[in-house]
Design a protein that fits this description.
104 residues, mainly alpha, Arc Repressor Mutant, subunit A, 2 domains, 71% helix, elongated
């Protein structure tokens, strides 16, 4: 067992909540620096507060499957758009070549 934390439980929970509210925009280090604690302390508190029913590490369950499906749909949409843009460029290229011949 480690030593007892000098920070009250409420402070630790508030610090973790602050980090999670800023997730994606701020790092552990940035939030920890604002609070005057180390990033590793904040990271440890966050791990301890995770739901014990979920496995350690990333949850690759339903959310990953949903994300993969969303990305596949987005990928197919982008591929379709790329084909349309290629067709438009080819039409413009031929039109420019035709216009250049007419100018001569």
């Amino acid at each position: 067992m480690g030593r007892k934390s000098p920070y009250p439980e409420e402070f630790r929970k508030d610090a973790v909540a602050l980090y999670r509210a800023a997730a994606g925009r701020r790092t552990y280090a940035a939030v920890a620096a604002d609070l005057g604690i180390t990033a590793e302390s904040l990271r440890t508190w966050g791990r301890k507060e995770e739901d014990p029913a979920t496995p350690k590490g990333r949850d690759v369950g339903a959310s990953a499957v949903e994300e993969l499906a969303r990305l596949r749909v987005e990928n197919s949409r982008l591929l379709k758009a790329e084909k349309e843009w290629q067709l438009e460029r080819e039409i413009l290229r031929q039109s420019a070549a035709y216009g250049a011949r007419e100018m001569k």
